[in-house]
């Protein structure tokens, strides 16, 4: 038993030496054990690994150069984010094209796409794309450009040009701050152009956030509140009339 556990720890350390971030589900598949076993292995080796939300990172990365800022956010208000996405999933319809924004909130939305729905999903972040690959009936359009490790997302003219060729039925946007007067804001400026382009093209746009984001104002403004069909939180849909 001990030798198998030691082998798993070595394998996990080797995997992280190359990737630096590993999703819990991927670690379990790599090691051929359950996610609970991986959780126990991580907990038993705090000097080597740190577990945050759905991701495992080397313990030394926590106070250093974290290449994947999403790992820090994965545990934050996770239940509320998941509940908000349950409400948002009601706006997903079969045979349509949807846009799924970057961040940790909308990861949960991907998991809620019905398995029998044939849809096209547009995204520009690795964590969302990774989950979409597990949906057999989803066709994925990944926007390219320059990679930004802090949000595991891409930006650039190539991605914006791809959007011009797409017909988006429903867009699900995320935000780090939602102020009734100032609008929706995010932390990373490179996300603004993508968000604004999508909002201008989509038939309907929904802002999906947990209630902790309400009343906050972040540095990068991307939209006034009246452009969204609704703001969706763990309490459900809230309509914002045009002003």
TrEMBL record:
InterPro entries: Carb_Metab_HTH_regulators, DeoR-like_C, DeoR_HTH, NagB/RpiA_transferase-like, Tscrpt_reg_HTH_DeoR_CS. GO terms for molecular function: DNA binding; DNA-binding transcription factor activity. SUPFAM superfamilies: NagB/RpiA/CoA transferase-like (SSF100950). Keywords: DNA-binding, Transcription, Transcription regulation. PROSITE patterns: HTH_DEOR_1, HTH_DEOR_2. Residues 5-57 form the HTH deoR-type domain. This is DeoR family transcriptional regulator.
């Amino acid at each position: 038993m001990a030798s198998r556990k030691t082998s798993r720890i070595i394998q996990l350390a080797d995997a992280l030496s190359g990737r630096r971030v590993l999703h819990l589900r991927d670690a379990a598949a790599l090691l051929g054990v359950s996610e609970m076993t991986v959780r126990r292995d991580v907990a038993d080796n705090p000097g080597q690994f740190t577990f945050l939300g759905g991701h495992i990172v080397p313990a030394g990365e926590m106070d250093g150069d974290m290449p994947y800022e999403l790992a820090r956010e994965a545990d934050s208000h996770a239940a509320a984010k998941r509940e908000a996405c349950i409400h948002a999933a009601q706006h997903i319809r079969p045979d349509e094209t949807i846009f799924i924004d970057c961040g940790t909130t909308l990861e949960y939305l991907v998991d809620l796409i019905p398995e029998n729905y044939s849809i096209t999903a547009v995204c520009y972040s690795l964590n969302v794309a990774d989950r979409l690959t597990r949906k057999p009936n989803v066709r994925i359009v990944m926007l390219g450009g320059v990679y930004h490790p802090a949000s595991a997302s891409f930006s650039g003219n190539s991605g914006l040009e791809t959007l011009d060729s797409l017909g988006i039925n429903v867009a699900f946007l995320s935000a780090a701050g939602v102020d009734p007067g100032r609008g929706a804001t995010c932390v990373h400026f490179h996300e603004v152009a993508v968000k604004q382009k999508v909002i201008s093209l989509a038939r309907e746009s929904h802002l999906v956030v947990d209630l902790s984001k309400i009343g906050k104002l972040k540095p990068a403004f991307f939209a006034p509140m009246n452009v969204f069909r609704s703001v969706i939180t763990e309490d459900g849909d809230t309509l914002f009339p045009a002003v």
